[in-house]
Amino acid sequence: MPTRPELQPSVVLSRRLVPLAALAWVLVAGVAPVGGGLLRLTELEDQGDRLAQRVADLVDRETTAQARLWRYDTQKLMEQIEQLRTAEGLPAVLVEHAGTVAVAVPDRATTNLQAPQVLWRSAPTRGVVPARVHVAVALRPLWQEMALLIAVFGLLATVLAGLLRWLPLRTVRSAEQRIRELVVELQDSQTELQGLAESLERRVAERSEQLAQTAEKLRELTAHAVQLQEDERRSIARDLHDGIGQTLTALRLQLQTLAAKSPMSARPPNVVLSLVDQALDETRRAVRRLAPPLLAELGLVGAIRQMADALEARGALRIAVSVDPPSLAHAPSLGAAVDVACFRIVQEALTNAARHSRVGQVKVTVQLREAELTCEVADDGCGFAPSAVVGGQGLRGMGERAALVGGHLELHTAPGQGCRVVAHLPLSTGERAR
Amino acid sequence: MRLPSHANPQHDAPAASPRLGSGPLWLAVALVGLGLALGLGALLQRLARESGPQLAPIPSLAPATLPDDAVHVGGSGSCIALVRRAVAGCRQQGQRVDVVIHEGIGSGGGLAALADGALAVALVSRPLKPEELKQELRVMPYARSPVALALQPDNGVADLSLAQLADLLAGKVARWPDGTPTQWLLRERGDSSHAVLRAAWPAFAAWEQTARQSSQAQVLFHDRTMHATLQSTPGTFGWVDAAAVRAEGVPVALPRIDGATADSAGLAAGRWPWAKDQSAVTRARDHAKALPLLNCLRSPAGRAALLAAGALPTPTE
Ligand SMILES: Nc1ncnc2c1ncn2[C@@H]1O[C@H](COP(=O)(O)OP(=O)(O)OP(=O)(O)O)[C@@H](O)[C@H]1O
Ligand SMILES: [Mg+2]
């Protein structure tokens, strides 16, 4: 399984957590000092304003009684202001009157009252002596508090941001580790499964091969059996023809000779002669049925055509035989088993058509395709319902013959729809090669 | 046969969006940073808003301007109460004393105003300092007034021994006889009554030093506030000019000490331990303008008024 390192969740997460951690850091480290600083500043401003107002009130009180001479009594004013100033702990208070400093607490020269050290707040007097009170507020506590806040919250923010980044990463990394282990396990079991599947495939192939060989052997055996059967039939037919046939023929000749020589009264009755004829006829017919006389000499197509002609000659049936490819008509045998099966199936189908279809038109088609011989007999007669058939041997026999050579039979019919019998007969490997 | 590998499509899915979430976060970081910068800016701007007063170093204040046609009198608060009584006494006897008596500005303030020409007469209740004497001044002592312990009459203290007084200062007396808790009051460091006690009584000097450093020190800066507080706050006690208290009719009790009374009799007998000398100071060149007041203070009516307030008039040569 290909793993692209830049897509690992922990890497993605790690990248995403950077701004999050940064945000947390800035928020925690920045907001507290700035907010705390602003609050503290407001407090200091309030403190300065409060003292400025109290001093302004004091100046008002002191100068109300002494609108003119108060300036000679600033020592007391100063002491009182000093008392207020000390109570608030602020560095300096100035009372500005007529553009000069009327009262200064403490001495200006001894205190650094410049901008970063102090913040000035002021309040006006409202009494008879116009003056403005300026109060210096030391900013040291502000800077100290902000420095402390920056240090503490900076540290806190760093720890927090670190945790924020580290904790999820740790979890994801351990999950990744687990997934990697699982993947390895999965790969192992997949390999194992693949091995099993391959051996299974091999065995199935072996079995199929064996089965095919067995089937082929069976087909060859069947063909052989059919061949044997045919040979047996032919031998029986020869025996019937040469034995009973010759005997019956000789008997007839004897009877004719006897009849010609005997006086009228001693002659064997005509019925004997006709019985002999009948026996002879039946024998001939049995011979013909047992051994289709022409299959060996004329080949399959020739034999079928011969049989069709014979049937046409006998009755009202008109039979059209077509062969595909046409070269099949002159082709050598497709193997005794297939030849016989096909011939017998066509024979039975034509017989059925003649006996049951009640029409005169039948179409026989013999087709050779690759490894299969198809023979089809179709009439457009009355047809029948296959499920309603009872007892007939013909249809079963056709099916069995087809099955014997490894093929099968299709029956397409319904009442009023004609009847079409199709036999699919596979050629054995030997025939196929030819 | 092969297992379908589901892993790949799932693996590819997040490939498109690894950086997608970072943008808004960085934006938030930038915004918060901007907000903080603004907050810091606001803080610094507030710091810079109010600059210190751009003032010249302390000069001497411009002299007070007073209408010239009257004789302006001012100075120590305790003197003023007594002098007002004396002037009232003189006027009752038909004397013309055309003076404007201002509220107390302290002995030093009075002398400074005199030097500026804002006052014709400065009333002082302490000896003049050498640098004050450098000017061409004429000093006329007119009375000696007792410095006394004052408390509320309801507290039921009429007599004290000096030892009891020492115990009181040492905090050994928590309650007055009527059950009110005792509570001391202080005047500012420059007060003349305190200066007298400090100089005359070492126990007081020691007590004053610790009292001023105490967290409950309540310092009053004027006679009037001292008198008002003594009246209004139960259990309080403090040191006052007995003559000024009487002259203003402040309803406080001035207990005897070791049997001596805080009045002219006690002073005359030499039994009252603490007293301060009051003087009227004028500049030589407008001494004449001050004569009606000076004459009143030395007249029988004036002296009678001083005596009535418990002060001992300075004998005339
Ligand atoms: N081409 C056909 N047209 C109409 N009906 C048919 C046709 N072929 C067969 N059948 C019907 O199917 C039945 C069964 O036919 P099957 O060949 O099995 O027996 P059979 O011909 O009656 O006797 P046999 O056993 O001698 O062949 C027939 O009896 C007939 O009713
Ligand atoms: Mg049949």
Describe the structure.
- The complex is a heterodimer of chains A (434) and B (317).
- By secondary structure, chain A is an alpha+beta fold.
- In chain A, 63% of the residues lie in helices and 15% in strands.
- Chain A folds into 2 domains: 1-207, no CATH class; 297-433, Heat Shock Protein 90.
- Chain A has 8 helices and 9 strands.
- In chain A, α1 (9-65) packs antiparallel against α2 (74-88) and α6 runs antiparallel to α7.
- The longest helix of chain A is centred in the middle third of the chain and has 122 residues, at 140-261.
- Helix content of chain B is 43%, strand content 17%.
- Chain B has 13 helices and 12 strands.
- In chain B, α3 links the parallel β1 (71-75) and β2 (99-101).
- In chain B, strands 1, 2, 3, 4, 6, 9, 11 and 12 form an 8-stranded mixed β-sheet that branches. A two-stranded parallel sheet of chain B has the order 5-10. Chain B has a two-stranded parallel sheet with strand order 7-8.
- Chain B has 2 domains: 9-21 and 146-268, D-Maltodextrin-Binding Protein, domain 2; 25-144 and 277-313, Periplasmic binding protein-like II (D-Maltodextrin-Binding Protein, domain 2, 3-Layer(aba) Sandwich).
- Chain B is of the alpha/beta class and 317 residues long.
- The interface between A and B is large, with 70 and 60 residues.
